[in-house]
Amino acid sequence: MAGNNEQAIIIKRIEEDGGHGHHGGAWKVAYADFMTAMMAFFLLLWILAASDEEKLRGLADYFTPSLSESGGRGEGLLDGTVLAEDGVMSGTDGPATPVQLPSFGQENPLAVFDSRLRDSAPNVVVEYDTRPEGDREVATINESGPDGIEAAQAAAEAERAQEDWEAAQDRLEQQITAQVIATPELQNLSEHLRFDRTENGLEIQIVDKTGSSMFATGSARIADKTRDLLRIIADAVVDLPNALTISGHTDSVPYSGAGTYSNWELSADRANATRRVLVENGVSAARITGISGLADTAPLDPAQPDAPENRRISVTLRYPESARSSQ
């Protein structure tokens, strides 16, 4: 039997609850918040789907920022003194503040809910074009809306008109030259023709050469060979809509006739005689918008004012207005 001084041994047993005692209830709070947010989200979707445009606009107006654009200055009884002295807001100088206040949603509140209402004129970028290079049309679609599209279309039309005009000039020059060469009695006169593309249009010139004059000396009477050249020019331009101007030129040798008749009158009379020949060969008189006599003021060879090439008649086929606008 043990002695009274021996201490009894006590054994304490602790039963565990499955090993999950370290988890708390925080997940339940997070889950509840998640479910509340989802419910609010689906409720918002339902409201947007079930509401008409008028109700949506009212809802958008409710959430639209309504910031004062008067620099924080009040207009009621307080007269702005709630903010600071003189109604100054955030340390600025009142109405002259450089701070740009946000305006999102103020112009069109429904754009807050529908992104299709925000971009009325999207910017279109063409990555590549599979059409042949000759068939492509150059156009730029601007972000400025219909006005930008119309400007691009007008620019494309003007460019096409310019290309058509360039092609028409080539055809006209080839037609006149070929017809002169095809006429036996005029073959040796092809060197008297000169084609220049000036700022006013295509200038067709009949020039004198050494030993060969297109007009009788000192006279406005047109020689037969010159009349034939003018007939070919008239046949080439008769069906075109372009306006025509005619100018006469002389060399620097003074007119030898008596009286006040000079190179000015001579060049003008030769231009007018050219006009009559063109009209006789079918060119509408209404298309001829100008007749001028320039005497020796615009020589082809300024270094030799008395050179025979300076004596000439110029018939200018004017630029069409559509091609002129693209210059």
TrEMBL record:
Per UniProt, subcellular location reads as: Cell membrane
Phosphoprotein is among the record's keywords: no
Q: Could you list the residue ranges forming a coiled coil in this record?
A: 151-178
Give the GO cellular component terms, alphabetically.
Answer: plasma membrane
Which SUPFAM superfamilies does this chain map to?
A: OmpA-like (SSF103088)
Q: Which residues form the OmpA-like domain?
A: 202-321
Sorted keywords for this record are: Cell membrane, Coiled coil, Membrane, Plasmid, Transmembrane, Transmembrane helix
Q: Which residues cross the membrane?
A: 29-49
* Membrane topology note: Single-pass membrane protein
Indicate yes or no for the key word Zinc-finger: no
Ranges where the record places region Disordered: 297-327
Q: Which domain of life is it from?
A: Bacteria
Q: Which family does it belong to?
A: Belongs to the MotB family.
Protein name (Swiss-Prot/TrEMBL): Chemotaxis protein MotB
Q: Which taxonomic lineage does the organism of this UniProt entry have? A: Bacteria, Pseudomonadati, Pseudomonadota, Alphaproteobacteria, Rhodobacterales
